[in-house]
Amino acid sequence: MADLKYKRVVLKISGEGLCCEGGFGIDADELKRIGSEIKSVHDLGGEVAVVVGGGNIVRGSQIARHAQIEEATGHYMGMLATVINALAIQDTLESMGVATRVQSAVNVDRVCERFIRRRAMRHLEKGRVVIFAAGTGNPFVTTDTGAALRASEINADVLLKATKVEGVYDSDPMKNPEAKRYDKLSYNEVINSRLGVMDVSAIDLCQRNDIPIIVFSLRTANNMRNVVCGEPIGTLVTDKA
Ligand code: UDP
């Protein structure tokens, strides 16, 4: 059994990670790929919590701009979209033989548990993957902040932020082939550079609770397992030397 550098991890997946490039909704192959990555860490004895976004279905501020929908309502719609994604990830993992629980910050009692911190930690200790839905449960923020909050609450060893590219770059690597990837950044460097890695509130929470963030691509096979085993993949955000 490989040595895990990080035993308890929170994986943040954007809703976009569940659909094809530029698409909408949920793609079966993408779900399977994400499930396999999570399973590979679970199989090594890692405690995995997942925070999933909802941008593949609804983004609160966008829908409010384009329709007669109040912005707060749009954000609640976004949170409900994350519940849909969480259920999709749950069944995918269960079909692979991984026990799971979904806990939502907005009560949807017919489909999943409510978020209860101590219960979530007990699930993790018992080897269940816990999928946190509905972000923080409050409008006007994103699931990045939800991920940092849950990571802080459950004493996670690391927050893994999955992106489309292999880390944080000095410019958009999709547009600039010369873009340079950073191996390591401090929390303040990320905040001050406005690289748009995560919300400032999310980075601030991780800094205050001394939780490293690793930005990496979940599209490269076995990346998640290699990251939790300590391989230098993606960009590490920390204040430690
Ligand atoms: N959202 C919210 N509060 C939260 C988390 C999410 O209001 O704590 C809403 C917000 O409108 C957001 C949407 O849910 O746009 C989907 O989440 P997010 O944009 O974080 O998804 P991602 O970009 O990760 O797919």
Distance between the termini: 28 Å
Indicate the CATH class.
Alpha Beta
Strand order of the largest sheet: 4-3-5-2-1-6-10-11-9
What is the CATH superfamily?
Answer: Acetylglutamate kinase-like
What's the architecture, going by CATH? 3-Layer(aba) Sandwich
Hetero groups in this structure are: uridine-5'-diphosphate
Give the strand content.
Answer: 15-25%
Query: What fold name stands as the CATH topology?
Result: Carbamate kinase
What would the average pLDDT be, to the nearest integer? 96
Number of strands: 11
Helix content: 25-40%
| Secondary structure tally, helices | 8
Stretches with pLDDT under 50, minimum 5 residues: none
Tally of distinct domains: 1
Structural class: alpha/beta
> Main β-sheet: number of strands, strand sense, barrel status?
9 strands, mixed
Give the CA-based shape: globular
Rg, Å, rounded: 17 Å
Order of helices and strands: EHEHHEEHEHEEEEHHEHE
